[in-house]
């Protein structure tokens, strides 16, 4: 297991776990450690991570702290939103979609500093290890990958804290006990799982929610908003043009207020087990609903139904960590091709956990009042065509029925 | 067009339109008319339809009034719910699923009374004409089908009312003017479309809703309920065993109170145009969420993902009127096969338009706390297996990346 | 039916049927007729069509004769070959793929000459009417379409010939009787159907074949050939670079000699009936086999399997006439994305009706002898990874089995 | 790795490799070994395996020799044939389909003799280890699995032979050198791979073929045969009713004579690499073609196209070893549902490597000469229906085109 490693790029949050990993990598591999801390909108200060790394002896030129929020939303979240991606019908893939970007940046840094290995703090039971490592291998096939949680013997929190104390790693008071659940956060969502959430019959306790206000505490007055789309991507809220990250942040604020985007789910992990998670995706939930609505008037049925049939596969690929795969890219090519005219404005009512579509309009609308109207349509549609349409669609069914009757 | 017809079975609501059709059929075809009125839970008295038919000269033995509510929910709604069917990601298919049952019963009656034709009151622009007629042809390939709206020249409401008055058909006062929208209702849903709904940018007016109380008027206190499932079908609410129709009615009551199941949608009709509809599916929306949740713990990933991939096709078949088709039956066979262990209990919180899953349990649960736990799992899962799993999943991606680097 | 038409572009072969149509259009609609005759490699002289049109009074500037062979193969046949498209598992879509090009050119000519209508000679039972007309409407939504076979009363060959004679249209001697079958030909294939082929239990008579030599008469000596591919398209045969049409013609010659590409098929038409056809696709059959083989070493599994799953839908779209549809274009975008590295050389043995792959090589090969070898692979693959791979793939199956055992 | 094992059921061919494994299991685990040798139609005597086992000290009651040919064809090959399964468009899955049956029988024996482990002789790079072990785990989730090729250090043939000689295991003369390729055989096919086949550009040498006569040596005279089907399964050849295994054997004889069913393929293994194999599936190739042909006249288009779309996934599941999975069973349920009327007779011409369909008939035929005929069909089909059919199919395309023109 202990391969020969000289320099490793570690995805480093600055928290207790990745601090222990930092130390453990040095001890175990005798290698130099390069830390990489990304701002994906998780809502934490990054400078403490820099100081922590410095304190632990990482050379300043080996400390990388990047604000990836715009890239994250523009190149990862938005392409996925174009697909209306939902894993197992419900999950907006907030964690899954962040991993490939982190992996990509780690590999870029590894190339820049001449590192021969990368490392992450994901456990051996989860999906994230797969997502990180498939990303690494897809971009740098010969990189060495170190997954401490699969290698070391710090198999309990007690051991981890003992290791930290033995190595002068400060242990915050609130980390001394077992955390009641674990979380992952970025601009798209916060996920929570484990411990108090492990019994899927028990309701998620109130204190687990961090990104949305409580349903009952949400305002009694609805908010009405509009979202403008251009070629499948949201570009403005209430008429105000915003960058991708700013737009998602804006929708997150709105979603937080109205308690939108909570999801209590038992899902199927790629590694073969079921797990129960709680997700909060306030802005993403609004965006998802709005994107479907703008597609409703601008996307042809053939394109829309093909998208719907491809979507579960596409979502599964992202969930399983195959963002950097030929088949995800093929599906993306198909999806993106469909979005050329997906422009216009959607109006939503936000209220007590719900993002309700109440209107949509577009210069590219395919909806034709003239054709669909109950009133006289002045020849836009000849009702007698329907007879032939039905007759030929029925022909094979009639031949079947005649066989039955034979 | 005017084929030789001697006896026709008409799907007869007793309303103005089908009354005019009844008369028109007699006038146009000189044929005997048999009326069929079904109780699908639309919430209207049926006896007035009988009296209306009698008044219009239909022979008593030619008036058929059937309570099909249990058959409707048990043999149509529930099988569809097993599939988690949503048309275009959102629509629970409330109108679509009722049509095949009506068609089937019409054909049975036609056989019983020796009729050679069937007729319905669906217009020439909609999906329902297709659903009715594909049903007729699939069950009786040589039946004659009369679709008055595609044949006659009563192309405006004024002409229709003139015809009614000329033929002593009573015109209710509220039918004199143009209805502001048109509706279809059954135990699963009420749909509304046309007129005031035709501009998809305009919010659906309050007065259009009939099956759900207004969002803002819903109770400030949530209700918690449980639904029990057996082999994929709901069998009890709050522990009380109920027949299919009674159960759906119970959920409808709960959904009405909490304003659950409203949907404002621009959808793609089978006949090629987009239309804007408003749907209220209170109980069905609760049921759909609950069924996904019980599957969450009882259905294997392979089965669940296959179901998700097949679902859009399945929903499209029902929407398009292909209930009685070999391919719908094939998909149903696959879906039903998956439901053998889908038993257990789901707990939901109903609040202000939302049906939120808060718990699920099952004697057949595949969720294993022992495997998934963050704690020591005592060997239930070997984290080192993950390395090999990732390595082999990555192999093809690495070979690709090496090719890129060549 | 008889709309107001002033100028119509007719797809005109110069044969008896389209000559009658030419006359009938003038008579029926009192309109000017523009003829369009395309060389798609059907192997017939086109100049006689010009003379025929002139004789029938078409103005010289209204006679269009175009050699579309290169465009046909490059922009229609090759994109379809990239998809490995087979309708119902077997049919290489030789007729289907030609129709959209003819439709497109007719619309271009209509725009050029200011015509308000187009017309074709396809019958009312076949797929071709659908393919032509969907093409017309997709490119010129308000064009008038005249389908004489659905409109006129020349419902038997006798009547057709009577009409021809009454209007001074020369009737070739061999057209006086009923043809024993009907054919369609282009550079990709010849199809035959009808009459002597209508009993699907009867073997196709020898005289029906026109594009391939008889199986038993094929050489006793095999030919070995190579085909070079670049980005998914064939570019050379036996090392000789050829244009798309020249390459397909070359493969047709080879296929003819070796009796390759015959297919006796009962297929399902879009209009709802089954028909029996005989197809000869000599070069296309070779190309299809070769393309799969070059993909075998250059295409990643994920891409290849996704293509295989999408293919039936793609083929169905082409068969049904939806070439110019958003969903066909979406699928094409996905397929084309996959072909970037599909370059290399395939070697085939042609013998007695078979096109057997015997070798393939590529600078982009993903096949790695080093990885796959039975010999010592020097660490290219760690067999122990397989254990973890299997264990995690098995995990959900084990959880299922434990449930069964409960 | 060396788990505590007391009794292991070994899939034992009696050849050198599994004899070495037998010994190695005893030596390494100190356990009792139970041998299981199956007759799947591989064409080898089984009694020598018994003697070999006895000689190596296996107790007589621990030697299991079963003729599984009928079960193999009836319960594995035939269900797969109903699906028209082809992996990667070409491979008839001859090896893949045998593995689950062997695994199932091993588990049955393990239960019978009270064994706690099973073992097989598949290598660590191939698919078969996966297929065996997924089968084991799906049927006995807590069974111990021993895969010697992944565990031991006999990593070259030289070491294997040294081990054999050191342990008094007889080494046949022809096994002393390296075999030029490795094979697997059963009633459905023989596969060959490795060594001389590892360069995919080199033609497969003549001496590799064992199940089919050379193409050029095949008779100059074609054979015509008929195959009768009942509910999707072949039941008779040339009118003679045969059991599943006897029928496949009969077709194998015919296929051998006419050199039918050879396939040179580069395929994608589940473990992530490409490999080149040569397959001979003489009877299976004939059966596959014939099954498609009988479906051609008896299966509705909707069912047929759904089958075609599901097939690649179904084939992939079998290839990857997921025979005993809920999703394979779901697909099987759908497929089997479609086969109820797939009965009738197919006529084929066998000639020089080709199995050409020349006729098909069925009491359940959906092919209607009356409907499809070019002649007057006496009202069986109204050509004017086609206009409405096309118009409504075109409607969305026209709306799209009008948008383009805006």
TrEMBL record, chains A, B, C, D:
Record keywords: Amino-acid biosynthesis, Arginine biosynthesis, ATP-binding, Cytoplasm, Ligase, Nucleotide-binding
Subcellular localization, as worded in the UniProt entry: Cytoplasm
GO molecular-function term, one example from the UniProt record: argininosuccinate synthase activity
Residues annotated as binding L-citrulline: 91, 96, 127, 131, 182, 191, 267, 279
Residue ranges of domain Arginosuccinate synthase C-terminal in the record: 181-398
Example GO biological process: L-arginine biosynthetic process
Arginosuccinate synthase-like N-terminal domain residues: 7-170
Protein name (record): Argininosuccinate synthase
Native organism: Allosphingosinicella flava
The gene coding this protein: argG
């Amino acid at each position: 297991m202990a391969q020969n490693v000289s320099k490793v790029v570690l995805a480093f949050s600055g928290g207790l776990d990745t601090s222990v990993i930092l130390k453990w990598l040095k001890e175990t591999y005798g290698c130099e450690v390069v830390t990489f801390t990304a701002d994906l909108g998780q809502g934490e200060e990054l400078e403490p991570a820099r100081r922590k790394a410095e304190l632990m002896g990482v050379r300043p030129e080996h400390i990388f702290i990047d604000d990836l929020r715009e890239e994250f939303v523009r190149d990862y979240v938005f392409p996925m939103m174009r697909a209306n991606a939902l894993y197992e019908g419900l999950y907006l893939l907030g964690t899954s979609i962040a991993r490939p970007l982190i992996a990509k940046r780690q590999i870029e840094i590894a190339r820049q500093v001449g590192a021969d290995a990368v490392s992450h703090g994901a456990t051996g039971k989860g999906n994230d290890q797969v997502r990180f490592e498939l990303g690494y291998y897809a971009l740098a096939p010969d990189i060495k990958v170190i997954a401490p949680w699969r290698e070391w013997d710090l198999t309990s929190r007690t051991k981890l804290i003992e290791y930290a104390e033995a190595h002068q790693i400060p242990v915050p008071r609130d980390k001394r006990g077992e955390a009641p659940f674990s979380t992952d956060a970025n601009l798209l969502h916060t996920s929570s799982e484990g411990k108090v959430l492990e019994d899927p019959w028990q309701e998620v306790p109130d204190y687990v929610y961090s990104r949305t206000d409580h349903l009952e505490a949400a305002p009694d007055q609805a908010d009405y908003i509009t979202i403008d789309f251009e070629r499948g991507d949201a570009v403005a809220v209430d008429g105000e043009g915003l960058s991708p990250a700013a737009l998602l942040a804006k929708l997150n604020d709105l979603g937080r207020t109205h308690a939108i985007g909570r999801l209590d789910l038992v899902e199927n992990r790629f590694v073969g087990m079921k797990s129960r998670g709680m997700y909060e995706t306030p802005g993403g939930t609004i965006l998802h609903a709005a994107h479907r609505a703008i597609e409703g008037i601008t996307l042809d049925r053939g394109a829309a139904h093909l998208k719907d049939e491809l979507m579960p596969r596409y979502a599964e690929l992202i969930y399983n960590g195959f963002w950097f795969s030929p088949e995800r890219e093929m599906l993306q090519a198909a999806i993106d091709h469909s979005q050329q005219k997906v422009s216009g404005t959607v109006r939503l009512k936000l209220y007590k956990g719900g993002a309700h579509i109440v209107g949509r309009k577009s210069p590219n609308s395919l909806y034709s009042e003239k054709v669909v109207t109950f009133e006289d349509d002045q020849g836009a549609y000849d009702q007698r065509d329907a007879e032939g349409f039905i007759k030929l669609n029925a022909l094979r069914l009639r031949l079947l029925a005649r066989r039955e009757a034979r």
